[in-house]
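Subject: for your reference before the review

Hello V.,

The reviewers asked for a structural picture of the protein, and I figured it would be easier to keep everything in one thread rather than splitting it across files. Below is the amino acid sequence we used in the manuscript, unchanged from the supplementary table.
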Amino acid sequence: MLESYVTPILMSYVNRYIKNLKPSDLQLSLWGGDVVLSKLELKLDVLEQELKLPFTFLSGHIHELRIHVPWTKLGSEPVVITINTMECILKLKDAIQDDHESCGSNSTNRSTTENTKSSVKPRRIQQAAPTDPDLPPGYVQSLIRRVVNNVNIVINNLILKYVEDDIVLSVNITSAECYTVGELWDRAFMDISATDLVLRKVINFSDCTVCLDKRNASGKIEFYQDPLLYKCSFRTRLHFTYDNLNSKMPSVIKIHTLVESLKLSITDQQLPMFIRIMQLGIALYYGEIGSFKDGETEDPTCHNKDMLGNITGAEDETRIDMQFPAQYKGQELYSQQDDEQPQGWVSWAWSFVPAIVSYDDDEEDYLANDPASTMHQQKAQTLKDPIVSVGFYCTKATVTFKLTEMQAESSYYSPQKVKSKEVLCWEQEGTTIEALMMGEPFFDCQIGFVGCRAMCLKGIMGVKDFEENMNRSETEACFFICGENLSTKGLTYLTNSLFDYRSPENNGTRAEFILDAAHHKETYTEIAGMQRFGAFYMDYLYTMENTGGKGSVNQQDFSSGKNEDLGTVQEKSTKSLVIGPLDFRLDSSSVHRILKMVVCALEHEYEPYNRLKPEIKDESEIILNPEELASLEEYIPTRHTSVTLLKCTCTIFMAEFNLLDHLLPIIMGEKNSSNFMNTTNFQPLRPLPSIQILVDKINLEHSVPMYAEQLVHVVSSLSQPSDNLLHYCYVHCYLKILGFQAGLTSLDCSGSYCLPVPVIPTFSTALYGKLLKLPTCWTKRSQIVITEGIFELPNLTVQATRAQTLLLQAIYQSWSHIGNVSSSGINEALMNEVFQTVGVKSKNPLPTLEGSIQNVELKYCSTSLVKCASGTMGSIKICAKAPGDSGKEKWVPLLQGPSDTKDLHSTKWLNESRKPESLLAPDLIAFTIQVPQYMDYCHNSGAVLLCSIQGFAINIDPIIYTWLIYQPQKRTSRHMQQPVVSVPLVTPISKRKEDELSVGSAPLAKQQSYQASEYASSPVKTKTLTESRPLSVPVKTMLNISEGCRSPEERMKEFIGIVWNAVKSLTIQLDVQSCCVFIPNDSLPSPSTIVCGDIPGTVRSWYHGQPSMPGTLVLCLPQIKIISAGHKYMEPLQEIPFVIPRPIIEEGDAFPWTISLHHFSIYTLLGKQVILCLVEPMGCTSTLAVTSQKLIATGPDARHSFVVCLHVDLESLEIKCSNPQVQLFYELADTLNKVWNKIQKKGNLSTSSAYSETMAGPVPSSPVRSSVGTVPPDTSTCSPSADIGTTTEGDSIQAGDDSPFSDSVTLEQTTNNIGGSSGRVSLWMQWVLPKITIKLFAPDPENKGTEVCMVSELEDLSASIDVQDVYTKVKCKIESFNIDHYRSRPGEGWQSGHFEGIFLQCKEKPVPWERVLVFGAMWRCLPFLY
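And here is what came back from the structure prediction:
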């Protein structure tokens, strides 16, 4: 009798999935208790339809199927279904097939419900068929339930293969068994009772192996790679909770899988395939494969519905469950939920149950979709959404990256073998992946792990840096550490899982779940996540709230096309990621390994999965009525992502070997053909200097509209969209960096670091950017901002001694100079200087330069017509910190801005009271610049530049020279481990004694250098001596030589063309306040009474307070104003983008420019409060006009012809000079010259020789060429005095500059050459100067106390230059030229000298001699004061 009930149920299953079965045969053998079926073919179409995966089954068969039914003990023994060897081959569905089906894996629900309707109907009929009046229905039902709940399924040898392109992914599971268990998870025969509404099952998988191989064009695998995963076993626990005995669906489903040890291995050839499989997973997750992202976008009438946030189809992340009718919701979920294999098979095995679990569903669920039943159906559906919790836990996971190489066997015919070598390993402890969902409205996924680290193994690219025989420690091999270990953390990663003995399910209570967003965010904070995990925590939450109060909104509503209840769905998606304290070490070993992985990943390019649809703007604009618009304003669904990094340490070591030239070109997209072979013996370099960067917190926030396409279509069609709606049409990104600091440290032999030397003290900064979605929809609105960025930097300080900058330079060069292994060595004396031993006082500590900038704010934005930027910089200060006499440090200010330089041009300020620098001083620099996107666009106004720069004060103190000329000296203060490898120096030092130069107030002790001889035996030395010099020289020189091929005229033409394009329609307003330069003869430290950094204040206090003020030359540069024609003054800082009152449409309209310079003066301050003027304050006004005309060009490069006019009106010029001033000049020039020679000799700047060489053309034997080569410059023949003597090169250069008319010759040559067919330039320049007075003072050598003065006067000077194609004309005119001389005796004042003081007299009209005598007498009476 029972048979008539049980048999159809089993029959319906077997018949449904298996082809060509005769039900009568099956029935007979079933009644015997055992069925054995062999060589069965699966019904592939049914499987595809049931599973709804975007895969097609290429083949599927079962070798043997056994069913054992213990008819006599059905109430106490389980039915056992055994499958021996099941094999399936899958591939991705083709696009064509998809489009025919209209939705194989579509996210719209209409087709899905139809599919299920058709597949479910026949099953109903079969199940309802047998009815036996003899058996009481309740008894039968409970018995069937017992049978179903205790079915055992055993699969031996399950083989699944997935093929795509050249990828073959195969999964082989030796055995999988599913059975029912009791409370302690032991095998038992259980049933649901009224007291315990719980069912538990266990699935054990043993020996799971995953292989990933490459097949050739014919489909054969030529050689097999190492398996990705080899013989891994795991166990899964399932826990179902029911509401009552008659529930057809469990109310809570928990499925958790635990793997003790997961060991993945990836070879370089598997890496691109592995990335491809990962992309497949992501594309499936977001529903990008096979179907349109939003099922309804084809139908333009749906647009406004979509916009109101209810095409749930688009947020495919949680749509998994709504594609199945209620009865499958529980089962199929996991197969998509987790990318680990286990869940797929869990669901597969369990899918034998669904028809039985819901064998008595209400008939109305399958009614047609008529409006009357929708509400009822919705209520029924609401009751049925189970809470599903899926978890994957892994105690320890390792991923090993291997490089493979071919090995030919000894015999000719045997196949090639692949030998693999491990290079990189990633270890991870305590991994958790948990997902919790309840139907559509709630989905949450949490991922975390307790700790991880990455290590270098073996060798890379022929460098055997971590081979076994190297005896390197594990800490050296480990380059990335994050989080903690399980031994200290405990089993927190298993909290509340079915494997946690403290979880409610293991203690007989019902679990509580948090299923609303607000409560979830309060509970699962970043802090809570980090307490549970420690290294990484991610929480992804998607919720859909129905504010209309009608229960959860279901998909059927959307497809029924009704509008009234749509505005009530509110969707939210938030992801937050936290990464715990991490330590990242970038040394040669790790950088080369990481880049090698990147190169391998780029080796095979696959077509992307998501075929981007072309952006088609619908012609039929969507017009929203006011109510719809209001509800849209009220709520727009967004996705929000937040990433936080806590306590990062990043250490960048000096490169011990550098083979980046074999990796970087491939990453940059150039194919590298050269076969690379390198085998080098590697010796670790110790001590190894490094840059250490610490960051307290980095926070990145990103938000994007969920349905960007529809939203933008709607908003861009509105005539006046509100700011709120516009805000949501952008992608927004905020980046905050808090507590960033950097310093220098070094790693010694014991593997410990020395104390870091700070270079950049702590600072914070922030960056914000936004980008418009689908800019093509906004073409009609040119004023809409497309991109915008804001950068803020409250303050940034950098401090360093010269030794520290040399060390930084050496670290930079070790990475940028691509050369042989360990070519970049490090000078021991330099290391001693930078890392001083604690407690040992240095004999002569080095000065430190410290620069700081404050309040930098920059803003950038672009529209379809213009790009613009604006910004301010509050202030900048540079000081030098030098050791003082009494042990105290002294501060010497070197640069200060803004500084009040308005009255520094006249010398009165020294005697008047000076206001202290106010804190409310204006910003040092404020600017706004706006450039059109397309220069030649006819309706476009030209570029605009508004800029104002406040006054600067600069102090060129001799301490700068002391800082610049530092050279590492041998010290014995700290004993250093000699590196095994021979190492060249950073700076070439000759073998003889160094004559130390004492400059300024801090003389360096004369010390001998034995440095070079110690390394003289180095085999590497001759090669790398010049190679490890600073980068700038050889590169610059090489550039100059290569550019020498182009003639200077060509370059000049090109330059003029570029400049003209930039300024032809530029509206300019430039306002630069005076910059005052103080050049003292000796150091000027800031007194303690003055605010540190105030340069004028420091000079003034020295002038008044110190009797021995060092001689100081003061250069007051003019304040500059440039304004273009017709432009009215505007504030330099504008809201961007902005419109100017008079835009320039035609090119050339911006001219003439008015340029005015005022308050230029030079004076000297000498000791004892003496001020001597050199150039009295003066200025000039000039007008610059340029017109241009395009020439009719035959070639493709049309040139312009230019007419340039410059008119300069100078104010009167008065120059005075006396002996003390000349002496001061000489001292300053001499000091500068010595320093220059010293620097040149160090090989840091050989500009003069480089330039004089290139002027003459590329001479093959020039010294410049040899310095780039391998021969070290021979400095040993120089005499010791060569240091201090001047070089002839320097002199010759200066002599060239001094000749007054040298310019006009070159000007004529250049302009003649520029003219001609390619483009013509006509120049007309005119200078007008009313008067020049030059006064020279000197003491009379014969008479004590008498002074002599010579006065030259030139009046009404004018000069003009006219350059045309065919001629050049120069005119100079001087109205009068007189030279007179005077002398001053004590008590008499100034009087004319001999011959009435006349020395020379030239005038336009001759002057009668008598009048000269009268004039002479008059002059003599006038007291002439200096």
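For the response letter, the relevant points are probably these. The mean pLDDT is 75. The CA atoms of residues 905 and 1116 lie 6 Å apart.

Happy to draft the paragraph if you're swamped.

O.
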